[in-house]
Task: inverse folding
């Protein structure tokens, strides 16, 4: 176990009281779920993409409420900034007008909806049965050193490899493969 | 009003996950299917960050960062396949993509 990761728990945030009230949580959660509904029901793919951006930003707000500011920043920069621009470019390249006039749901949609309802029933029963497992008291992570602790785990500390340094290098290899694959597949002639 | 516990976040994440699954299983437009996959990955990320907060260590947040990397790679590769297919068949509906069926 890396001591740097667990020392984050020890440094409790005893400074100011959290400004996030339960109302913030309910507003953000409601915005996320309602715009997720818009994502899967809109006819025009551009409207779906814009609703997905609202969902991603709301989830970033929930990360901030969970004392994870670095993950919230990554969510906004990489998801809402990078991946969604990629989606909008592809929507622009493929034919939006024709596909928005066609049938939107496939022929087996009742089966898919029933399977999703079964999955939801599974989730509800698991959460209701396991409700006692979750502690009421939450550990406050230190917000000020969050980025430093993540950097120590990713890049190592004082010349030693961090716990996730090897996984970080593998992730860069994955991104390289994805870039090469995307370029090769979208080229007309290789 | 009661405090917000881990369970609240898990309920929101479960709702987002189920909505993403509905989108994957029922929509015809491949772009919206890929967006629903992003919804599913976000639900998983929310669970991981909530558990990271519950246990008071950073392992969940590290996993979230790697899942974001994975989502970027998946979006790039998936949209590349989509453009290559659209160039050949002039359609992006999943039920018309049946070249491997007989």
Result:
């Amino acid at each position: 176990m890396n001591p740097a990761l667990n020392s984050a728990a020890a440094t409790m945030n005893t400074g100011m009281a959290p400004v996030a009230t339960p109302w913030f949580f309910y507003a953000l959660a409601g915005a996320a779920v309602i715009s997720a509904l818009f994502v899967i029901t809109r006819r025009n793919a551009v409207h779906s993409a814009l609703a997905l951006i609202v969902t991603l930003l709301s989830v970033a707000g929930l990360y901030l409420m969970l004392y994870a500011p670095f993950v919230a920043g990554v969510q906004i920069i990489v998801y809402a900034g990078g991946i969604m621009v990629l989606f909008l470019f592809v929507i622009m390249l493929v034919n939006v007008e024709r596909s928005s006039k066609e049938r939107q749901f496939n022929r087996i949609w009742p089966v898919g909806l029933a399977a999703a309802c079964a999955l939801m029933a599974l989730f509800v029963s698991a959460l209701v049965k396991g409700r006692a497992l979750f502690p009421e008291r939450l550990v406050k992570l230190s917000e000020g050193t969050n980025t430093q602790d993540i950097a120590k785990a990713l890049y190592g500390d004082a010349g030693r490899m961090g716990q996730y340094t090897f996984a970080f290098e593998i992730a860069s290899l994955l991104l390289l493969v994805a870039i090469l694959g995307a370029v090769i597949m979208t080229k007309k002639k290789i | 009003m009661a405090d917000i516990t881990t369970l609240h976040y898990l309920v929101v994440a479960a709702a987002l996950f189920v909505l993403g699954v509905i989108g994957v299983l029922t929509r015809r437009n491949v772009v919206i299917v890929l967006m629903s996959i992003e919804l599913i990955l976000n639900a998983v990320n929310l669970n991981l960050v909530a558990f990271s907060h519950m246990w008071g260590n950073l392992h969940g947040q590290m996993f979230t960062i790697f899942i974001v990397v994975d989502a970027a790679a998946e979006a790039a590769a998936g949209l590349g396949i989509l453009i290559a297919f659209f160039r050949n068949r002039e359609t992006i509906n999943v039920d018309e993509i049946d070249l491997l069926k007989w």
